[in-house]
Write the structure tokens for this entry.
Amino acid sequence: MNKPQFVIIDFGSQYTTIIARTLALLGFRSVITSPEKLKECLAENSPKALILSGGNASVYDENAPTIPVELLNGDYYVLGICYGMQLIAHLLDSSSVQKGNTDQKGYGPMKIRINNEERIFADLQTHLNAWTSHGDIVANLPNGFEEIASSGTDGGKVIEGIISPLGKIIALQFHPEVIQTDDDNSILKNFAGIAKCVPDWNSENAIDEIRNHVLTEVGGGRALLGLSGGVDSTTLAAILAPIMGDNLVSFIIDHGGMREGEIEEVQATMARAGIPINVVKASSRFLKTIGKATDPEEKRKRFMKAYRETFERIISKYRITHMIQGTLATDLIESGKKGKSALIKSHHNIVDFSIPKVEPLSHLFKHEIRAIARSLNLDAMIAERKPFPGPGLYLRILGIPATRNLIKTVQWADKIVTAILKDENCYDEISQLVVALDGTKTTGVKGDARSLAYSIIVRPITTSDFMTVKPMYLAPHVMERITNEITKHTLVNRVFWDYTPKPPATTEFE
Ligand code: XMP
């Protein structure tokens, strides 16, 4: 597998993965590492360029994340962003960073003057609308560095960009990776050019790498592929089935928490693509194992237990030697297994089995998988399919134990909401629709009688990578149609709308 030319050092910014995604869009592979794991990461990848991300810390904090100063001695091309810029300046001259005070906090859109004769700003005008989010600032240039961007007036001027004497180290106070910075990704593209990186990501290469990776790991063994029906595992099946034949056994678990008709739909899609799959019926096992759990992490852990047990049975029955999973980089990041990110939630597929596990997609992001799926001519239904969590509707019954009847109620509600959104032509704009049942009973009046019933919560969101999401606001007449239909159910007398972005709320409720 080609080694990535970029190593991104994650100082905890919420935008770190967006740097990786933007590089991938520009055709470059990259790897994200924490400062603690940097040494191993550099040894493993020998990159040409380092990108130092933003982050919440101040260089003056007691345990401020840092890197060895030797990394700035010219062996690598370096781009520092926000905290990354402050850290570079501080490492080279400990008096250059000025601690932020409330008057100097930079947050939000900002007009930046740039020296567009510098190669990093090639193709840009002299003024750039950029996104800033920082407290500290670089007040004095480190020795030999030049200013290449600034904001504010002479009296209150802020240095927004600096470059080293030989031009190998560039640092920016604003965030070129986010779409709010109006550069059409040209700053990262220019940096790639300065660092002499050549595009190394396209779907054909990615498919070859995935195949080689799996064939090397599995050798002459027989592998089990756990399918969820989503884009990731389906794409993996489409890549591997033609080359592995009987050495690949693909199973989808009917755990009882899928949406209505979903298993049948997945079977039909796979049949059309000529990919053999098997279904294991295990809803009773999952319902029993999840039992009365209502705490989100407890529920996820119990789901993982049933998931592991179900696959272990298949492993021994079919004499399987390797477990292949379609785990993505995002799953690992949110499960606290990659970079510096904290555990947000335990993803059902981050689980160990009695046999070696192969995760050939673990360096890829959703948009890359979709690009691969499209290049394999997988149905539009698969390539554009909206994500759905592995533990399914078990995660969408809140505060009370999941039962078959409650799952049926959420399935029904999900189907109604989806149908109305499609009819109103707003379904395609939504990245994911979450329909959940809130287990708190509230009072209502139905047919002149008092009713005590549950509520349905509707959460339509848009996003490009699920690391951050925005609410998708529905028109009042659409909300009214949904409310009227959903409250016809005897178990439901209210509908709530969740328009909270991520952060602070995650996409799923649990
Ligand atoms: P959150 O809720 O963390 O979700 O914002 C981000 C994306 O991941 C999906 N999700 C899961 N997918 N197993 C999965 O396969 C899981 O355990 C899981 N939990 C969340 C979620 O639906 C969203 O698309």
About this structure: The pocket of xanthosine-5'-monophosphate is lined by residues 334, 344-345, 347-349, 387, 389-391, 432, 466, 502, 506-508 (CB under 6 Å). The two ends are 36 Å apart (CA to CA). The chain has 14 helices and 21 strands.
